[in-house]
Amino acid sequence: MNDVLMFHISSGSYRVLDIDYAYQALTLHDPHMSTCDAIVLGGRGNGFAVEPWRAPYMTPVPDNVFMLIGCSARSPLFQGFPGKHLPCRNVSGMGCEEYYGCPAWDMVGHKRLGSTFGYGPPECCALSFEAIKAINLSKLECEAYSSAYSLAPLRVDGPSGWSYGIRVKYSVQGHEEFCRACEATGGTCGYGTEGIRQLCMCGSSNSTSNCDSVKSSSSRRIYPLADTFAGLIMSLLAWMTTM
């Protein structure tokens, strides 16, 4: 719609900012997600949650930090860990202590209550997706959230330079064996046109098996990379739409 690719799952709708085919990752944007410049209160953010059957094929990357803001003392985040708040921790060098330095906190009256634990819940609790398996602001009784990710080995100084968004790793069912064989020979798994479902992209040439077969055959047909990427986009869109 309006040349904008949207991604729809149970927790809400997200704009797709980037598709990284090499690493099979999507970068998603939630318009109600807080950043370093603005904190969006009122529990309006989507967070991130998928159905259990879809979880094995789509999950935020380990280097993605979720920072939950304004959570109630009754939040499930803090139950079972009296006075410790064990789930809260930095992820890939990103966390609330640095995030508190963002100008957005000046606009909401930052008090840092409980930031040292013991005086009530902290205003911000940073954690990985793996720690709680779902970011649902209503169930967690939180007012807002932010999400940032790290593209190792790139490191930036300060939260103003973080990449804000949700970076999600995806996999396509039924193609693991083909892709493993392709990647083992230095190729990148993809999809083609003209009735060819799977392609192993090997530099300027492509193969329907692996890159070793390209090297050993000078007569193999070369599929234009533009067609290959077009087919990959169409396949991914069809997969996201039907799931």
In spatial order, strands of the major sheet run: 1-2-3-9-4
Q: What count of structural domains? A: 2
- Which sheet architecture does the biggest sheet show? 5 strands, antiparallel
The DSSP helix count reads 7
**Low-confidence parts, pLDDT < 50 over ≥5 residues?**
113-117, 218-235
Number of strand elements: 12
What spatial form do the alpha-carbon principal axes imply? Answer: elongated
Mean pLDDT: 80
Distance between the termini: 19 Å
Structural class: alpha+beta
> What order do the helices and strands follow?
EEEEEHHEHHEEEHEEEHH
- Percent in helix: 10-25%
* Gyration radius, in Å: 21 Å
Strand percent estimate: 15-25%
What does this structure look like?
A hairpin with a 2-residue loop joins strand 11 and strand 12. The chain is 20% helix and 23% strand. It is of the alpha+beta class and 243 residues long. Mean pLDDT is 80; it is low at 113-117 and 218-235. The protein starts with 5 loop residues before the first strand and ends with a helix. The chain is elongated, with a radius of gyration of 21 Å. It folds into two domains: 6-170, no CATH class; 176-242, no CATH class. This is Wall-associated receptor kinase galacturonan-binding protein. Keywords: Kinase, Receptor, Transferase. One of its GO terms (molecular function) is kinase activity.
Please name the defining characteristics of this protein:
single chain; 243 residues; alpha+beta; 2 domains; 12 strands
